[in-house]
Amino acid sequence: MTLRVLAAMSGGVDSAVAAARAAEAGHDVTGVHLALSKNPQSYRTGARGCCTAEDSRDARRAADIIGIPFYVWDMAEEFDRDVVQDFVSEYAAGRTPNPCMRCNEKIKFAAVLDRAVALGFDAVCTGHHVRKIDGRLCRSVDEAKDQSYVLAVLTSEQISHAMFPLGDCTKSEVRAEADRRGLTVADKPDSHDICFIADGDTAGFLNDRLGNEPGPIVDESGEVLGSHSGAHAFTVGQRKGLNLGGATNRRYVLSIEPVNNTVRVGPRESLAVDEIIGERPVWSGCAPLAAPFACRVQLRAHGEVHECHAWQRGEELVIHLAEPATGVATGQAAVLYDGDTVLGSATIAGTGRVSQEAASASAL
């Protein structure tokens, strides 16, 4: 069956090969590059980001080699509103956001997909390393490059209009294929870090927008141990950058309290949590879990996977971990898996410790 496919081409090797595979499969493919900044020079150059002027030129050259039409869509206003401003406001609220996940949700699979469907396209094709099996997201065969976590915010309807041609191969195989196809991006380094922070200085970026208001660093009893120049520069689990001088024991950030501009620190064992509460759950791989279900959860991109029981309670996702986890930050996503299959996700809104009785009850 021939589909009209819109291939999102970032200018990297993955999206170029994905577009080439879709075209080779006989689909009617059109390439599109998203212009995400009104001032491209403010974004990174080279391999430091994924939204650069060089990327736009690389995407156009790849489309020419593949032999497909190519356009640039201006999404700067949507990107600033839904990704950049969301990033700043989340840090201001003491949370730790994942801007790549928000970009996938709000830009690549909401704004772009909506526009594509309105223009008569059947699917949006991307170079994400993830598989789609029976309409559900599954981990890539390349575990090191798997991107199912950052796509777990997608709804089943969005997934039904998505095409992921690279989930069945490794990154080295993608590069080799790009070389065989004569794509000039075959050896282009992967993008990394946050594309809209030009110099990589996240704290400086946030200081420019939120100010650098000094505040106290306190221990669990409330004793002041030192001071900071902006609570938004910290995240739960952080150890470096506290500058506590003569402290003899290692201390970690336990919480950020934006209302009183306080950073609370303590020993590593105080970071341990075994209950996680998520908000805005999205169930793309199953119906909402009405009762505790044994599965696994990933709590940050490329992070450790934990055994757990999870279920939906009202509008919340409740997760009880089999063993405590540390460094779990609000604002990140909790993504549930059954084997390699994504069941659903939610934004972490709170954490805590549960009683032994509650933990045992959830396992029944």
TrEMBL record:
The gene is mnmA. Belongs to the MnmA/TRMU family. Keywords: ATP-binding, Cytoplasm, Disulfide bond, Nucleotide-binding, RNA-binding, Transferase, tRNA processing, tRNA-binding. PANTHER family: MITOCHONDRIAL TRNA-SPECIFIC 2-THIOURIDYLASE 1 (PTHR11933:SF5), TRNA 5-METHYLAMINOMETHYL-2-THIOURIDYLATE -METHYLTRANSFERASE (PTHR11933). This is tRNA-specific 2-thiouridylase MnmA. Residues 205-266 form the tRNA-specific 2-thiouridylase MnmA-like central domain. The active site is at 103 (nucleophile), 195 (cysteine persulfide intermediate). The keyword NADP does not apply. ATP binds at residues 8-15, 34, 127. Pfam families: tRNA_Me_trans, tRNA_Me_trans_C, tRNA_Me_trans_M. The keyword RNA-binding applies. It is found in: Cytoplasm. Its EC number is 2.8.1.13. Residues 145-147 are annotated as: Interaction with tRNA. It is an enzyme of class 2 (transferase). Transmembrane segments: none annotated. Gene3D superfamilies: Adenine nucleotide alpha hydrolases-like domains, HUPs, Translation factors. CDD domains: MnmA_TRMU-like.
